[in-house]
Amino acid sequence: MELKVIDLKAYLAVMDKLDGEPSKITEQLGPELTRLCKEVASSLREAGAVVVRDPRCSEEENEKFIEMMERYYESPVEYKRPQERPDFHYQVGITPEKVEVPRFLVDEKMQEKAKALPKESQPATPVGSDLKWRYMWSVGPRPSKTRFKELNGGPVIPESFPGWTETMNSWGYKMIAATEVVAEMAAIGFGLPKDAFTSLMKQGPHVLGPTGSDLQSYGQEGTVLAGYHYDTNFLTIHGRCRFPGLNIWVKNGQKVEGSVPEGCLLIQTGKEMEYLTAGDCIAGMHEVVVTEKTTEAIKQALEQNRSLWRVSSTLFAHIASEAVLKPLGHFAESPLASNYPPISAGEFTNQELSAISLKG
C-alpha cells in the first residue's frame, strides 16, 4: 500500500476565511477542497497515516535541523547527561539509549495481535530497551496552571550549543503548524466543526522529539532501534530521515515502509486521536529496524564521510493536558464509544507512561 501525497497549498490559501460550521464549510470550500479534506480523513482512518506537502516546511530546513542534531548526538555522553530530566518522565530533555522500554515487551495483548499477523507483516522482536537516544524539546506556550506539571515542563537547553534554540523553535513551530492544518482538514473530512481537534490542541505539551541512533555501534542488519509501539499523543509528524528503517502498520495489519518523499512530511495517528474518534482512527503502530536499505545508506555515508547517527525529524502534537478526551460529535454515537470513557489528556498520558518502564 502506497500513501498518496496530499498537497496542503490550496487549503492553506483559504483556511483563514472558513466558517466553523460543517454545513457552511462544504459550500465555502467547493468540491475539490472538500474532497481533499475527505482524503485526509480517509487516509488517517484506513492507514493511520497521511503524507503531506506543506510549502512552509522546506527540505533545506529539515536538513539543517538534522545536521544540528547529528552534531549534538555525536557529543560525548558526559556533555549530554546534564540534559536528562527523569523527574519529568523524560518528557523534556535527553533520554539516553537503553532507557525507554518498547510497549511491545510489556503488553501481552499487543504481542498476541502481532503474532496473529501474517509472517511478512510481523514486527521484529526487541531484545531489551530501545537503543535510540531522544531529545524532547518543548514547543509552544504551556498553561500557567496545570495539574500535570511533569508533562508541561519548559525547554531544556544544552550548554554552549550555537544556534540550538533558534533551530529547534523554527522547525518545531513549522511542524506544529503542519499538524494543525491536517487536524483541521481531518475534522472537516469527518463532518466535524473545523476546530474540533485544533481547539483541544491549544497549549498542549507539544514536543519536538528527534531520536538519535548510533549506527556505528548498532548498524547490523536486523538490529531493533525502536521496538514496535504506538504513540500516546494526538498526531506524530516526521520529516525525511537520512537512513531508512521506519516501518509502519496500516489498519488492515499490513506492514509498510515508512519512507518520506523529498519535500514531504509523514503524519501518523496517535492514541489521543483514536480516543477522540472512538476507534474510527486507530493509533498507528511502528518500529525502527536496521534493514538492508539502512546498511546500504551506512556504506554510502562512510564513503562520503558523513555522520553515522540516524536522526529522526519527529514532533509529537498533543491534546492539552487539562482537556477531556472523549469521542467527539457523531463519534459519540459509535457502538465502540463506551470503550473510550471521558478522561483528561494528562491523566491518560500518565497512565500510558506508567505502563512502560523508564529507568532513571
TrEMBL record:
<dbReference type="InterPro" id="IPR027443">
    <property type="entry name" value="IPNS-like_sf"/>
</dbReference>
<keyword id="KW-0408">Iron</keyword>
<dbReference type="GO" id="GO:0046872">
    <property type="term" value="F:metal ion binding"/>
</dbReference>
<keyword id="KW-0560">Oxidoreductase</keyword>
<dbReference type="GO" id="GO:0016491">
    <property type="term" value="F:oxidoreductase activity"/>
</dbReference>
<keyword id="KW-0479">Metal-binding</keyword>
<protein>
    <recommendedName>
        <fullName>Non-haem dioxygenase N-terminal domain-containing protein</fullName>
    </recommendedName>
</protein>
